[in-house]
Specification:
This protein has 244 residues and is α/β, with parallel strands linked by helices. It contains seven helices and 13 strands. It has a single domain, classed as Rossmann fold (3-Layer(aba) Sandwich), CATH 3.40.50.
Length: 244
């Protein structure tokens, strides 16, 4: 497989994995790192990432959880799906990671050899009619609900999950009510919430939510996650997410 031309390379875990991504199009954020490290996955799980981009979350999941049976990634944008396949192959994970170039609205269990034990997603954060849409098409699709809505994401997760399967998602706090409502409407009961703060003393900007398909109501709020201790230093928990 040919290396994508003019793409940048980022390394994780002291160089143990390397990830190519476009220099100007969609590039993953710290949300992907957090989700890859904190997703509710167990050994021997089959896991699906809805909207996998360059494949960073599947690779972190596989590295952090070597007992996972298989990780699937679904990506609607052809260039990003190709980069994700390249990244998996270059990191010798192509036997454990399978990338589907597909619209998540069409993915069904038959595409992945059955239902999933866990689904993860870092979906577009903004409604289509909210704010300025980025002129770069990759970034626009990743950030705004152009190709997929929140309801599409939760419906796909519910469709792909086995009974009692786990769904983990990161979303803006200002849309947390929308997220909880969409999960419950899809039959995924929100069970845990963890607020993500830029640093202590600053209001939370993101929420990490875990839901379980078909479970009874009842939710717990976990201790907060701080990205930085101060403007210049990651918190100890974030530093550990980059460590081998």
């Amino acid at each position: 497989m040919n290396q994508p031309s003019d793409h940048t390379s980022d390394t994780f875990f002291n160089g143990r994995i390397s990830i190519k991504q476009p220099p100007d199009g969609y590039r993953f954020s710290i949300d992907a790192v957090i989700l890859g490290n904190l997703a509710a996955v167990h050994p021997d799980d089959k896991v699906l990432d809805l909207g996998c981009g360059c494949g960073v979350i599947p690779m972190i999941l596989h590295y952090r959880n070597p007992g996972i049976r298989q990780v699937f990634g679904v990506e609607i944008q052809a260039e990003l799906a190709a980069i994700a396949r390249f990244n998996a192959a270059e990191n010798h994970m192509n036997n454990q990671i399978r990338i589907l170039h597909q619209d998540i609205k069409t993915v069904v269990p038959e595409d992945t050899g059955g239902t999933m034990d866990a689904v993860v997603c870092n979906p577009p954060h903004f409604a289509r009619d909210s704010g300025r849409i980025n002129p770069d098409s990759q970034r626009a699709v990743a950030r705004h609900e152009i190709a997929v809505t929140l309801a599409d994401v939760t419906a796909a997760a519910a469709r792909m999950l086995a009974a009692a399967g786990r769904f983990t998602v990161i979303y803006p706090c200002e849309r947390m009510v929308d997220l909880v409502s969409a999960m419950r409407s899809a039959g995924i009961e929100p069970k845990r919430l963890r607020m993500i703060h830029p640093r202590p003393g600053v209001e939370a900007k993101r929420v990490l939510a875990v839901g379980i398909k078909g479970k009874h109501p009842g939710i717990k709020i976990d201790p907060p996650l701080f990205i930085r201790n101060d403007p210049d230093h990651y918190s100890e928990e974030l530093e550990a997410m980059f460590a081998p």
